[in-house]
Write a structure and sequence with these properties.
Blueprint lengths: L1 E4 L6 H10 L4 E4 L10 E4 L5 H10 L2 H10 L4 E4 L1 H5 L1 E4 L5 E2 L4 E7 L13 E9 L13 E7 L1 E4 L5 E6 L3 E8 L2 E4 L7 H12 L2
Parallel strand pairs: 1-2, 1-3, 3-4, 4-13, 5-7
Antiparallel strand pairs: 5-6, 7-10, 8-9, 8-11, 11-12, 12-13
Length: about 200
């Protein structure tokens, strides 16, 4: 069974539905002490970074996630969930994250755009595979995935397994040991998104 972490933010049911389409089962986990019972965990999320961290800290779920990560069990952050894995974010001020991956979350830099682009980055875009990963098994380079976000991750090259171009190249997938992050929405990315989720289930 896979734990989907419920901290009052995110498209929880759509993530569970996507997991079930891969042939696996998922359970919403609200109590921090229950997280350790599961072999894999998904941290979803839609909304503001600061609010998300506030909810995670409220009942100690932030510390439970950190302890789960120490066990070397796989954990996948999706969209805002991916961003929460990092050390900090500049969204609505300076906010500290879970610190499981080195780096920070920043607003798209309009000054780097080749031409005027809208923020948020929303819609279908391609994934450029930067490094081999079990998460990307049978996923082709330049596969289309669905994005909705205004902020993106900045991290060391060694943590980046996929990037995407929107005005400039930004980090869209990360991996550090047993910690994985996925900026696009797999549950909205049809067969390709479900394949990536299935790869996570099979780790």
């Amino acid at each position: 069974m896979i734990a989907v972490i419920d901290y009052q933010m995110g498209n929880l049911q759509s993530v569970i539905n996507a997991v079930e389409k891969t042939g696996q089962s998922a359970v919403l986990v609200r109590k921090p002490e229950e997280l350790e019972k599961y072999e894999k965990a998904i941290l979803p999320g839609v909304g503001a970074f600061g609010d998300a961290m506030k909810y995670l800290k409220k009942d100690g779920m932030d510390e439970a996630i950190k302890e789960f990560a120490k066990t070397k069990k796989p954990i996948l952050g999706i969209c805002l969930g991916m961003q929460l894995l990092f050390e900090k974010s500049e969204e609505f001020g300076n906010n500290h994250g879970l610190g499981l991956i080195d780096g920070e979350i920043v607003l798209f830099d309009k000054t780097k755009f080749d031409k005027p682009l809208k923020i948020p980055h929303m819609g279908w875009n391609t994934l450029h595979i930067r490094k081999k990963s079990a998460l990307l098994k049978e996923i082709d380079d330049n596969t289309y995935l669905y994005f909705v976000h205004s902020f993106h991750a900045k991290t060391e090259e060694k943590n980046i397994i996929g990037s995407t171009f929107y005005g400039y190249e930004f980090t869209s997938m990360v991996e550090k040991d047993n910690i994985f992050g996925f900026q696009p929405h797999p549950e909205k990315s049809h067969e390709n998104g479900l394949k990536i989720l299935k790869n996570f289930m099979e780790l």
